[in-house]
Amino acid sequence: MIDRRTLLALAAGSVAGIRPGLAQSMALRIGYVPVIGASALFVLAGDGSARDAGLELKLTKFDSGPNAIQAFASGTIDILVIGVAPVAVARSRGLDASVIAAAAVGGTAFVAGPALAKAFAENADDPAKAFAAFRAATGRKAKLGTLPPGGVPTVALHHWLWTIGKVERSDVEIVNMGIEVVQQAMLTGAIDGGTLLEPSATLVSERDPRIKRIVNSPDMFPNIPGVVVAASGALVKNRPEVAERFVGLFHQATERIRKEPAKVAPFVLAVLGGDLVAESTIAKALVSPAVSFVNDPAQIRKATEALLAYQVELGDFSQAPALDGLFNQALYERGVRSSPTR
Questions:
Q1: What does the buried/exposed string (b/e) look like for 255-288 if buried means 16 or more CB atoms within 10 Å of the residue's CB?
Q2: CATH code at position 24
Q3: How far apart, in Å, are the Cα atoms of 263 and each of 88, 105, 242, 253, 259?
Q4: What is the C-alpha separation between 87 and 77, in angstroms, rounded?
Q5: CA angle in degrees (0–180, nearest 5) for 274-277-280
Q6: What pLDDT does residue 107 have?
Q7: Which PANTHER family does the record cross-reference, listed alphabetically (predicted)?
Q8: In whole angstroms, what is the distance from residue 84 CA to residue 106 CA?
Q9: Is residue 342 one of the residues assigned to a domain?
Q10: What is the b/e burial string over 200-231, where b = at least 16 CB atoms within 10 angstroms of the residue's CB?
Q11: Fewer CB within 10 Å, N side or C side of the chain?
């Protein structure tokens, strides 16, 4: 005999078009770092599409990559939405995990306070000339805030300064600090410039129009991978249909971000906004030139290889992790083919 509750659950599964194996709620433990590149996760968790498809998402927020990777390695997380470099390094050290989808390219921007912005405006946005002019005018190095070593915004900043901009190292001082600290330091004038994650890059210019966006991370490091979706080996081996279903939903949520950013902004605001961020700010951040939402791992493979190689130059690790097996392209493609429509 089938009781009424089970019958209703099966009927709901049929309406959602899900396979019988997913008709009953399947739990997924998902870790994430609260950045704009993870927005598709916030959308599918907030708009009910995951629940309708029979997935119960249990989200855990991490403030840093190392803590997230530690939880992932312990087996308490099934899926991690985070930057690709920590996943690649951990995998090279024995972590059984693979990237089953990309989430975003870029996600950050370099902004300048009033004095540094003036130097850029007067020097045709040439980094080397601008920083030299700033030092000549102020008698000191420009103080720049960014995340700790290894973070994608930090890698992008170094690449832009030294490789693209040919900036003299004697003209800048780089200070490593947390995500929220960089934002506050920009607004208080404690630093002259810094790399800010969206929506902070949009927010600071709204709060203080004298703060100017100078360059976006995709131009600081071409096609730099921002966030990826990594799945544990246990999930891929034991519940591949669940991983595929999640990829399909994630792809669907990404399409919603591209097509209707204003409509999905409330779901992103619920995670990233806090009490002081307006919904309109989130909507602007979702269409910011600092970030583009892509899901195909093949689109970031070459840039990932370049990113990891450059991190070796920076001393983030001694040897670039191999990419063999890092990207599970087949699972991604199966997941996209199963993507439902709403």
A1: bbbeeebeebbbbbbebbbeeebeeebbbbbbbb
A2: 3.40.190.10
A3: 34, 21, 27, 12, 9
A4: 13
A5: 135
A6: 94
A7: ALIPHATIC SULFONATES-BINDING PROTEIN-RELATED
A8: 12
A9: no
A10: bbbbbbeebeebbbbbbbbbbbebbbbbbbbb
A11: N
